[in-house]
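Bumping with the actual sequence this time:
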Amino acid sequence: MNNEIRQQQEEAAKAYDNRCLLEMKSKSIPKGQKYPPGTRVFISNEMPPWMSHFDRGVIGTVEYTYTHMFRNPENPDYDDLENENSKEYSINIDGHGSTAWYGEDLLTIMK
């Protein structure tokens, strides 16, 4: 693949990511969600064994939580933080793209 085509694909992917982020920012954030879309976070170096294939020790941008993206607004109980997916985040990792689902306890806000 030549560089021009690759650059066009990268620009299209970035435009898509920006549209998705804007869409998520327009939706109300579930109660108790610690990091809103657009928050810069550091992903821990320490991962549970089942996440051994995930990127670690890197910086990225919060896109959404599972609840934020997929909740049913008609069901008010879906805002409940007892839902096991409510604190699982999709992160756009710098230089790598989007990866889901990182637990909230693995993320630290960047200042």
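The tokens above came from a reply further down the thread. The chain has a mean pLDDT of 81.
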